[in-house]
Write a structure and sequence with these properties.
Length: 208
């Protein structure tokens, strides 16, 4: 998978500065990876070109692989906000579907072809992409449990989260990603209904 679209920028001055530094390091890394290849570029070279210390780089990115998935934490935050959203006009399943469709649209766009190719051709990055998806599943499950534990069992909500991320994972590899996701999400809806969550059948299929 490619990097998710950015969520809302941090509000505080210190947080904005940290976010800007993080984004700068990731942009430098991606430029180097694109030019020389992922395996050919080391973290010291990235730190030097970004004009930061190696320790600063690792304070923002625990591993070299994380440099390619810079927006992972921001998307996880978006998932939490999506579940907590009190919008009475939509159900939690509708909101989850919408945010994953947006991510899928981003990850399968023409703008991310080079990045997708780099991830697919690297064993380390392909493995890390699976780790990232597991993080999304865990984050979504925890958010659902926190918001709906009185109505649904934690195990059932974990299944909803896992099915959602699996639907996204399968769809992004499909020749028709959006149609595939819509088809698979109907199974997620059935799982969500069995878990005690609201149905999203009222939403028109194929809408973002």
């Amino acid at each position: 998978m490619s990097r998710p679209p950015a969520a809302t920028a941090p509000a505080g001055r210190r947080e904005r500065k940290k976010a800007a530094t993080r984004r700068h390091i990731a942009e430098v890394a991606l430029k180097l990876f694109t030019e020389f290849g992922y395996d050919a570029v080391g973290v010291r070279r990235i730190a030097d070109d970004a004009d930061v210390a190696v320790t600063t780089l690792f304070s923002h990115f625990p591993s070299k692989e994380d440099l390619v998935f810079e927006q992972t934490d921001m998307f996880a935050l978006r998932l939490k906000e999506t579940v907590r959203d009190g919008d009475r006009q939509t159900t939690v399943l509708q909101r989850i579907r919408k945010v994953f469709r947006a991510l899928l649209l981003h990850c399968t766009s023409d703008d991310t072809v080079d990045l997708r190719t780099m991830i697919e051709e690297s064993t380390a990055l392909s493995s890390h992409a699976q780790v990232v998806e597991l993080r999304f599943s865990d984050t979504l499950a925890k958010a659902l449990i926190e918001a709906h534990s009185t109505d649904s069992s934690p195990t059932a909500l974990q299944m909803v989260a896992r099915c959602t991320v699996d639907a996204f994972s399968i769809a992004r590899r499909s020749p028709t990603p959006m149609d595939t996701f819509d088809e698979l999400f109907r199974m997620v809806e059935a799982t969500g209904q069995a878990a005690g969550l609201e149905s999203s059948q009222s939403e028109t299929p194929g809408t973002a």
